[in-house]
Specification:
With 119 residues, the protein is mainly alpha-helical. A two-stranded antiparallel ribbon has the order 1-2. The mean pLDDT is 93.
Length: 119
Amino acid sequence: MEQKIMYSDTQCAKNIDAVEDALYVLGGKWKLRIVIALISGHNRFNELQRIIKGISARVLSNELKQLELNGLAKRVVQADKTPVVVEYVPTEYAETLKDVVAALADWGQKHKKKITSHE
């Protein structure tokens, strides 16, 4: 039998606040998808647009700017190359999301199995 985790009212409120803060940064349709693509090694704008199905160039550009402001992505311009190469790289801070992404992906796979197995 699974042990039930109980939080005090104070801890519950702190958890809610912390999750709200995380969702503020990572929420929306695209941000987490972009972070996943970045930490998976997709760094060029067109590559990101290709791997993230359905995102427009304008939306991707805006979302990358937001991720930069929140310290999760860094825009790197390699002006010494011809043509100039622009890449977006995940910051060390973004790398801290790897375990969160792995746990969320694991839960998502289990959930999909659960709802499609007709138990």
